[in-house]
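During the no-cost extension, the postdoctoral fellow (Dr. R.K.) reprocessed legacy sequence entries with the updated structure-token encoder. One reprocessed record is reproduced below for audit purposes.
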Amino acid sequence: MATSFDYAPLFRSSVGFDRIFDLLENAQRARASSDWPPYDIVKTGDDTYRITVAVAGFSQDDLTLTSESNLLTVSGNKGEPSQEGYLYHGIAGRPFEHRFELADHVRVTAAELTNGLLSIDLVREIPEAMKPRKIEIQSAPGSEPPVQIEGQKVA
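Re-encoded structure tokens follow.
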């Protein structure tokens, strides 16, 4: 079941959100890649996040993390499988690639592989120039409030 949304009303009242609308439209399209291996995305603080990918059977040398502008790519490739004569091979070791779209000013701070889980820590750091600031309102020269002149009351 495919559901399509029309973003035209939002375009009429917003400026500069083209990237967000593109992300929403891309999310609606059928995913070409699988969701293997499974992963979690957790908000660990006001401006901190953690992505945890289950990479059982992959070593640190088999994994690659790449951070480009607004895109984090996690990929794994074990190379050639060993010829050990498996009776049953249930642990998947196929190559994978996950792409995570990152918001502006989100950067990777650390990555750690522990017990088959790859944890990637991210932080959103908004530059000082982009943080909200209070702007003082000044009155224009010559626009003093009118002065009331006292006079006789007319009956």
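The longest strand covers residues 106-114. The mean pLDDT is 81. The remaining legacy entries will be reprocessed before the final report is submitted.
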